Amino acid sequence: MTETVLFALTNDYTHYCLSHSFQKLYDCKMFAISEVTSRPKIFFQNQKLVNFEKIWFLHDNIKKTSSIPDMEYLQNFEEKYQINLWKLIQNERIFLYFQNYYKFSSNEMLNILEQECRFFEKILDEIKPKFFFTRMPSLHHQELLYQMCKNTNVKTIAMNYTLLGTKCMLSKEHGTLDDISELENIKFEHRSFDELQKYLNSFDLIKQLDQTIIKPGHSNLEKLSSLKEYLLNFDSENTETHYTYYGRTKTKVLYNYLIDFILTKQRKSFIDKTLNRSTNFDYPFIYFPLHAEMERATLIGAPYYVNQIEIIKNIAKSLPINFKLVVKEHPVQVKRSWRTKSDYNEIMNIPNVILYHPDFPKDTLYKNCSIVFTIAGTAGFEAACYGKPSISLVDLNYSLLPSVFTLNNFADLNDLIKKLLKLEVHESDVNRFLAIFEKNISHFDWSGFTKKLSDEFFSKSIQDTEINEDKMKSFLEKNQNELTSFANEHVKKIT
Asked: What is the pLDDT of residues 147-175, one digit of tens each?
């Protein structure tokens, strides 16, 4: 019997490229769900490079409607698939964080969700896939399909960034390693903490994001060029057919761009003048690196902990009297126009909190802190490489480390801090974890490959652009070895 594989084709096209190589290695029927906008949709409708049995387009199946949501259907769906639907809606950035473009009513959000549920359910019933390949979800509809597949025993392989920046991970579950069977007995390289730090810095994810996300388009000239390209080639059809584009008229896009441009400059000036850069640590402290907002790690990975200022206040309340809490802004936050001045002032007005500049070297903070606190980021693993214990608010793949503790109740935090101040972190534990972690990762450079796709196809960072099939064919040929290797890793995961 020929097996069925379902691909989720998101806007970065990585899984489309993967499917091209995968079809040469694995005999199966391939289907895909695409969420692209109107211009690239033409390519996917007509392309002959990948032999998909069928491609469905998500936004063709989501209509703007004023009908009353079928709450009985949603209730039954929630029970059938064991999915908390309100949690998905409440943490969807499109619904709640872009209200300067369009304000969704409760009924509109529920209507969109109901249509997505029915659409995905129809596909799964129709093709009954054995495997589902996707990226780790960042939007609610991606997470919805991911959970539906996982909870109906479809073998799901999700691609995600890793603790080591130039690599990615293929895993079946959020925040877990598929292979931990040899954790206690695995052979590992004996590296000192200094050697571990050098190894970690050679794969620095923030440094890689700085090269692929922050710096491209960061200059004012490039931003203005992107805006000009968008306004000249604006496709108004998307504002009617894609709820992610509702309200994005030329006027609103231009207005919000100018507002963001001004706010970013004003806030950066405030940051440069106000946030701390001192290397004089004459006090013991706990280090809390802020998460960028809005990001998957909190919205989906830690959905009950999205208010970071409240978390900072709760940590600050729990410190020993002689301790301070050092908070550092995330450099990627520049892509969201930084935080408001009032947010920064609220953090700095907490008596025992010191707010550090986003450019301040994080390794200096790791070396001088006593404990690291993170919501759901990589900081806990990085802390271990510096010989420091850490606390997280959710279980993560590096929670296997004996120096990493998951906090279940803030009422317990003071006692946990006192416990960790006496804890010694062992190099052998970190080396052992790294050995098993490296067995679970792919050598595919996802962010680097995404940048190659962007440079090749997305003019001035605008994704709603037409794709030429000959150009795509040439791109696939140029990257054949890399994609074949990545496809082979998927085959190994499912066989």
From this structure: 999 999 999 999 998 887 778 999 988 77
| φ, ψ (nearest 5 deg) of residue 393 | -100, -10
* Number of neighbours of residue 405 by Cβ within 10 angstroms: 20
Name the residue among 309, 369, 368, 318 with its Cα closest to residue 343: 309
447, two tokens: 């962010």
Give buried/exposed letters for 337-354 (b at 16+ CB in 10 A, else e). bbbeeebbebbeebebbb
- Token duo for residue 348: 């700095």
In the three-class reduction of DSSP (H, G, I as helix; E, B as strand; rest coil), residue 159 is classed as strand
Q: Where does 97-234 show beta strands of DSSP type E? A: 131-135, 155-161, 168-171
Which tokens belong to 105? Answer: 């009513």
Instruction: Dihedral sign for Cα 121, 125, 130, 131, please.
Output: negative
Average pLDDT over residues 12-41: 95
Q: Which residues is 171 bridged to in the sheet?
A: 158
pLDDT at 209 over 80: no
Mean pLDDT score, 1-21: 93
**How confident is the model over 24-38, as a mean pLDDT?**
96
Which helix (H) or strand (E) segment holds residue 324: the answer is strand 324-328
Does residue 225 surpass a pLDDT of 70? no
Amino acid type, 1: M
Contact criterion met (CB below 8 Å) for 363 and 387 = no
Do 433 and 417 meet the contact criterion of CB atoms below 8 Å apart?
no
Angstrom distance (rounded) from CA 436 to CA 179: 8
Instruction: Dig out the tokens for 393 from the structure.
Output: 């608010």
- Average the pLDDT over 101-108 and give the result: 95
Q: What is the mean pLDDT of the chain?
A: 91
In the chain, the percentage of residues whose pLDDT exceeds 90 is: 76
Give the integer Cα–Cα distance in Å for 218 and 200.
26
As a whole number of angstroms, the distance between CA 176 and CA 394 comes to 12
Domain annotation for the chain: domains and CATH numbers: 3-178+442-488 (no CATH), 193-209+279-439 (3.40.50.2000)
For residue 161, give the nearest of 171, 172, 153, 169 by alpha carbon.
Answer: 169
Q: What's the confidence (pLDDT) of residue 12?
A: 86
Does position 438 have pLDDT exceeding 90, yes or no? Answer: no
Radius of gyration for the alpha carbons in the chain, expressed in angstroms and rounded: 23
Q: Say how many C-beta atoms besides its own lie within 10 A of residue 147's C-beta.
A: 18
Closest by CA to 165, choosing from 400, 450, 433, is: 450
Dihedral angle, C-alpha 97, 101, 107, 113, nearest 10 °: -60
